[in-house]
Amino acid sequence: MDWKGCSRMTKTINFDESTLFTNFVVYLFAFIIAIGTGAIIIFAIMKINPFSAISLIFSFGLFNAFGLKATFQYMIPLALISLGLALCYKAKYFNIGADGQLIFGTIFSMQVIFSLEKTTHSPLAIPLILLSGMVGGAFYSLIPATLKAKFNISEILTTLMLNFVAIYFMTWLVDINGPWKDPTAAELESYPIPSYYYLENPAILLSIVIIAIIIVYLIDTRTILGFQIKVVGSSQKAAEYSGINRTKVYILLSIISGALAGLAGSINLLTTSHILSSDYDSVYLGYLSIFTTWLAALNPLFVIMSSLLMGVMISGGYFMASISGVSQLFVYVFEGLMFISLITFKELSGTLRRLLKYG
Hints:
By secondary structure, the chain is an all-alpha fold. The chain has 14 helices and no strands. It has helices spanning about 5-10, 15-45, 50-65, 65-90, 100-115, 125-150, 155-175, 200-220, 225-235, 235-240, 245-275, 285-295, 305-325, 330-359.
């Protein structure tokens, strides 16, 4: 299929004004219902002002210097992972293994750091560490994609199980007799990375995310692969009729999404954790990214906003717990309520669109 034909066909997949307005209404109602339900739960169980407690999340996560820094640290990996998942989900390749891919990206980066410590420090070291994280994530993501392509094994099952493989492999590395266990540490954790590998410049981190957004957006809207992703996601029969190689699409998607998840793990290592541990603080970012991906409507341009919202909720949730006594885990209850509301209203959006159109 030539590029001009691909370009003409991709133009048929656009949002019109009524669709954008309907989506806005859907997200607004989902947010209101989640807030309202959460407020009722807090008041019924704890007998405190629920809106005062919930407001602490946003005031700390957005308007406090320390909270804003924490929000930013969560937003960066969430946005990177969500970009890769958005492409996967458009093709109905349901990768839920971003946590495992993130961990392997971190492990590959840590191995490079241990190797570099034996040589002279170079200004190319950090780019090399980030690249190794992308390679690690892409490598781990290729396993379920290959099983899907060759044997039609469900990627939902394989990516989920490989998350646990990655977690236990990481735990073995820092276990009592593990090869990376720091003998001076009381907890099960690795040797810390040298401070000269820290990457804490927000301008650099934001630039990485913006570049990733631009690349993924161009892949999605300006390439034959982006068109093939849409066709595979809409109809496998149409994909076969068009001569699209689904195996190639799945492999390329796994490389892109795995590399972005591995990059997120590498960045988290250099910015926040600085170690590997048995309770690695980035585990479950992959699961949270599923929410931010759908919240962004699988649109790369909206991913940074949905990731910012989730970053605010996580960082503000810790502050809410310390001030109001409402557990930080309530943030995940709120997330679940909003996700369920969003799915419900999405199902009803077709009816709403017709009402707006024929009113």
